Amino acid sequence: MLEGIALHHGYDFRDYAPGPLRRNILMSMALEGVPTISAYQDRVLHDPASLQRFLNTVGVNVTSMFREALALRALREEIVPWLRTFPSVRIWVAGCATGEEVASLAIVLRETGMLGRTRIYATDINEASLAIAARGLLPLETVQSGEADYRRSGGRGALTDYYAVVGDMARLDRTLLSGVTWARHNLISDASFNDFHVILCTNVLTHFSRRLHMQVQQLLYDSLVRSGYLIVGRLESVIRWGNLGVYNRVRESSGVYRKGAA
Ligand SMILES: C[S@@+](CC[C@H](N)C(=O)[O-])C[C@H]1O[C@@H](n2cnc3c(N)ncnc32)[C@H](O)[C@@H]1O
Fold first, then answer.
1. What confidence tens digit (pLDDT) does each residue in 4-36 have?
2. Cα-to-chain-centroid distance, residue 29
3. Where is the domain boundary, 39, 58, 77?
4. Is residue 63 part of a domain?
5. Is residue 203 situated within a structural domain?
6. Model-level pTM?
């Protein structure tokens, strides 16, 4: 089934971590109400809506505002002073899901005076997620529940400063996302497309097998400028299996690494 999806649709899940992959496929089958893997394969290969639901579950698009609060705190306190030394800055959010992390990043950059000179490239394999992200419209509850983590990230204002309430949705301040380029990019099969001062790739590597993890890690390493920063999830590690390039850990328990600096 995974081979069929890779060949037909270009989404290659064959090397994702087997345990979670199996669980997510079984969950998808239960949600779809299909009894056998061959019936499910048939549906996913021929029904675009079913494929989309497969991507949401198996690709795992769970996210939240200021999810990696400590990393964003490190961004404010340690990374931004370095970014200030550049006339313009490029940041890549790889695996941005529905955009909550990009909005959080943009808020930190706004509060540190860096948003105006930063170009953010936000990519994901899942086009439906990208379309949601680009609208700048998030469920109100999602934004409201990010207040505590916003504060943990060093935020001193209030998230309400950054959105207007539209029914049960929060419409983000338009200027927050105006410097964002949204694009489909597959970390497994697509090449690097620039070099970046900072890359956020949080809660994505965790879904990959060791081989894939190493492959994607190399792509991220090669996509960073010298002394650039890589941010992964706090529960992830780029050194678990031995990092391919040379990184220094910036803060314990924050998932922030710096390339090649002493
Ligand atoms: C759990 S979400 C993490 C979202 C966000 N980075 C965060 O930390 O909240 C994982 C995201 O990785 C994306 N993803 C999975 N495999 C990918 C791949 N091969 N290339 C690019 N994105 C991928 C999924 O579509 C999903 O949006």
1. 988 888 788 888 888 989 999 999 999 999 999
2. 26
3. 58
4. no
5. yes
6. 0.91
Query: Who's near 252: CB < 8 A, 6+ residues apart?
Result: none
pLDDT at residue 245, rounded to an integer: 62
3-state secondary structure at position 200? strand
Q: Are residues 102 and 201 in the same domain?
A: yes
In a domain, 12, yes or no: yes
Range of the domain at 24: 2-58
User: How many separate domains does the chain show?
Assistant: 2
pLDDT in tens, 86-111: 999 999 999 999 999 999 999 999 99
CA–CA dist 224, 192 (Å, integer): 10
Q: Candidates 125, 192, 220: which one to mutate for ligand 1, based on the most atoms within 8 Å of Cβ?
A: 125
133, 172 contact by CB (below 8 A):
no
Contact 71/229 with Cβ under 8 angstroms?
no
State the chain's mean pLDDT as an integer.
Answer: 92
Judge if 30 and 130 occupy the same domain.
Answer: no
Residue 186 Cα: closest atom of ligand 1: 20
Give the number of C-alpha atoms closer than 13 A to the C-alpha of residue 241, restricted to the C-beta side.
15
| Ligand 1 center–CA 138 separation, angstroms | 17
Q: How would you class 197 by CB atoms within 10 Å of its CB: exposed for 0-12, middle for 13-18, buried for 19 or more?
A: buried
Residues 12 and 99 in one domain: no
Within a domain: 64: no
